[in-house]
Amino acid sequence: MSGKARHARMSRRGFAVTALSTLVAGGAVAGAALAGAEPSRSNGKGKRATRELRGMWLATVANRDWPSKQGLTATQQRAELITHLDTAVSRRLNAVFFQVRPTADALWPSPYEPWSQVLTGTQGKDPGWDPLGTAVQEAHARGLELHAWFNPYRIANHTDPTKLIASHPARRHPDWVVPYGGKLYYNPGLPEVRAFVQDAMLDAVRKYAIDGVHWDDYFYPYPVAGQTFDDDAEYAKYGGAFPDRASWRRDNIDRLVQETAARIKAVRPGADFGISPFGVWRNVATDPLGSDTRAGVQTYDDLYADTRKWVRQNWIDYICPQIYWNIGFAAADYAKLLPWWAGVAKGTGTKLYVGEALYKAGDPAQPAAWQDPAELSRHLTLAQGHPEAKGHVFFSAKEVGADTIGAMARVVADHYQQPAMPPR
After folding, report:
1. Backbone phi, psi, residue 345, to 5°
2. Scanning 14, 25, 86, 342, which has the fewest C-beta atoms within 10 Å of its C-beta?
3. Phi, psi of 260 (to 5 degrees)
4. In angstroms, rounded to a whole number, what is the distance separating the alpha carbons of residues 40 and 267?
5. Dihedral angle at the C-alpha atoms of 266, 112, 76, 137, nearest 10 degrees?
6. Is 87 helix (H, G, I), strand (E, B) or coil?
7. Quick one: the chain helix, strand, coil %, rounded to 5?
8. How many other C-beta atoms can be found within 10 angstroms of the C-beta atom of residue 243?
9. What separation in angstroms does the CA of 390 have from each of 52, 103, 354, 413?
């Protein structure tokens, strides 16, 4: 979910600062819920608060949303982070998905991985404060849930291991690393990699009162024409029981999901575990169980992520597919994908949240539908007809604040006038 837009697949990828004393009712009610109290009223009009997730992604990879640039002082970084949280409150959101492990690094003091260079400009350099700890504390003070967003396998957005700090696990274990598509990845086919990335993520789950663990859409990397992800040795060693390499790769990701889910529940039972995959599992032309789409990427076949299975088996608490297309988009129509995902989630116990491409609103490179400030509001109206849809998450924080054509303001005006607490 790095904020990139592609034709047939999108990877997700002056604020009005609101003082604590003037938080909107939604923030106050959600705060009561976080404190363990069920509110008896919601808005002074006799209506109880609804259960609906209203979230935004706060991306740190490549300084996408925060910090605005590398090398700011700790005071400046903290002030920018607080501004994003205050903006979420002003938009009547109730959850923030904060990217704390963008590239095999950390936005908290981790014994497993180095400090992220997005903070200071130098990987491994202590920024002088604890961004994740501060985010949890300040989000909860504002009645917001704070979900820690991790990327399991991406190491770097380049292919030069010597650019990594000397103590980096990828340099200490070069056999764990696969270069592909101009980036470095941990190899999902190695059991020791699967254990390590869990340990690295679970460190944050153990230390902080986070409300959720969140993954984006990167499992095995998106396919790059003419390149091969080299896991021949691992497949030869571990893949003998599987009919083909694709089945073995899917099993590797299935194991990561199941093992992580179990460990989260053991460490922090109240935290949700959710995943935000690319919006198409499989096209119907590939599989009759698939969606009526013609997407150029299918998570099952290309990322080896059986996202439908995770929902149907109730391995995760929520699924948040990135349905990053407009209503009527020929290859992947929002109005077709939403009911498909609702059908997948129906009766499973896995909550469905919908990933929304706010970043496309007003972008002149996008189709005409995205020039209409009402497009996103229509998405939420459609979702009201599907009870499985328990909320929406907007990509991403920078656009939630800037809102160049008023698309977010229209969502708030049309749908977020009453307060809501996240589903639990």
Report:
1. -80, -20
2. 14
3. -65, -45
4. 31
5. 20
6. helix
7. 40, 15, 50
8. 8
9. 5, 30, 8, 19
For the chain, list residues with pLDDT below 50.
1-46
pLDDT tens digits for range 10-37: 333 322 222 222 223 333 333 333 333 2
**pLDDT tens-digit map of 253-273:** 999 999 999 999 999 999 999
Per-residue H/E/C for the chain: CCCCCCCCCCCCCCCCCCCHHHCCHHHHHHHHHHCCCCCCCCCCCCCCCEECEEEEEECCHHHCCCCCCCCCCHHHHHHHHHHHHHHHHHCCCCEEEEEEECCCCECCCCCCCCECHHHHCCCCCCCCCCHHHHHHHHHHHCCCEEEEEECCCEEECCCCHHHCCCCCHHHHCHHHEEEECCEEEECCCCHHHHHHHHHHHHHHHHHCCCCEEEECCCCCCCCCCCCCCCCHHHHHHHCCCCCCHHHHHHHHHHHHHHHHHHHHHHHCCCCEEEECCECCCCECCCCCCCECCCCCCCHHHHHCCCHHHHHHCCCCCEECCECCCCCCCCCCCHHHHHHHHHHHHCCCCCEEEEEECHHHCCCCCCCHHHHCCCHHHHHHHHHCCCCCEEEEEECCHHHHHHCCCCHHHHHHHHHCCCCEECCC
Residue that has been written with the tokens 């979900």 in this structure: 147
Cβ 297 vs Cβ 282: under 8 Å: no
